Amino acid sequence: MARSVSYVSAAKLVSMARGDPRLAIIDVRDEERSYQAHIAGSHHFASGGFAARMPELAQAATASGKDTLVFHCALSQVRGPSCARMFSDYLSETKEDSGIKNIMVLERGFNGWEVSGQPVCRCTDAPCKGTCAST
User: Fold this and answer.
1) Which of 51, 58, 62, 88 is the most exposed place for a label (fewest CB within 10 A)?
2) Active-site residue, 73 included
3) What is the CATH number of the domain that holds 13?
4) Over the stretch 95-132, which tens digit does the pLDDT of each residue have?
C-alpha cells in the first residue's frame, strides 16, 4: 500500500518529537550539512546517494522502532519532498513490513526551522547524538 507524504510545520514537529522515540528526522541536504547547523538528533542521508541508501534507511528505521520519518533539505521544495516520495515508493514496491506509518516533509526545510528560532546543533558527530541543541 502506498503511503502518502504529508507536510508538517516546525512548531508541530517540535511537539511531535518531544519524547517520542518513534519519530526520526531525515536530513537529505548534501555538502551544506557539513558547514551549516542541523536539527539535533537528525540522521543524514544525502540526496546525492539517497536511492542507494534506501535499504539502509528502511533497515535502521525498522530496527529502532521508528514509525514516522520527517524528511527535509534546505527549503523542502525539491530534495526533501523528492526523497520522501522516493522512499514511500520504495517501501510500497518492496512490500517490507517496516512499521513505518507516516512519511512527512518539514515545511520550509532547515532554513525555515532555523529562522523560526527552533533549536539547532552544530556538532560534527556522525550520527548526531541529539544532545547538542542550542539556538
Assistant:
1) 51
2) yes
3) 3.40.250.10
4) 766 789 999 999 999 999 999 999 898 887 777 777 77
| Torsion from C-alpha of 28, 43, 51, 8, nearest 10 degrees | -60
Q: Does residue 130 lie in a domain region?
A: no
Instruction: Provide the β-strand partners of residue 7.
Output: 105
Q: Which three cell numbers stand for residue 118?
A: 527552533
Catalytic choice (73, 83, 121, 128)? 73
Of the candidate ranges 16-20, 22-26, 84-88, the one whose mean pLDDT is the lowest = 16-20
Kindly tell me if the per-residue pLDDT of 25 is higher than 90: yes
Number of domains in the chain: 1
- Looking at the DSSP assignment, which residues form a beta bridge with residue 102? 68
In a domain, 84, yes or no: yes
Position 31 pLDDT exceeds 70: yes
Domain with 17, as residue range(s), is 5-121
